[in-house]
Amino acid sequence: MSTFEAMDIGRVDDLGRARFDGAEVAAFSAEFDPLTRPPTVSPLHICAAFMRLNVEFHRRQAAVGEASVFGPSPGVSDMIWHRPVQAGETLTYRQTILDKRSAPRRPGWGIVTTRIEAHDEAGKLVFGMRARVYLRTD
Description:
By secondary structure, this protein is an alpha+beta fold. The protein has three helices and five strands, in the order αβααββββ. Strands 1-3-4-5-2 form a five-stranded antiparallel beta sheet, covered by helices on one side. β3 and β4 (109-119) form a beta hairpin.
């Protein structure tokens, strides 16, 4: 069974936590988003933290024999920041599989749609988006 076939709609994966310390927030903003002023965390930084955690999650999966072969992402949508995040906060990220389907124009590939969320330490949703990615089906 391929990883694509084994993905169950509704499955929730806990990706981990990201703490945004002051020095890191300032350095990220200076290099990538000079319009965001610390101690506010750049929205791009919040997304970059998700990407790092997502890559680490899939590396852990591969280490236990659940390797996935990903292709490009057709994009993201419904990206919402519910409130500004401040330096010193820790966010917990998770993703839920919403849909999967074959990619008729790309034999051997499917498209997986997920909902990504980040919650603050009180459990309140602070960031969310919908993402799609190509995944090998064989």
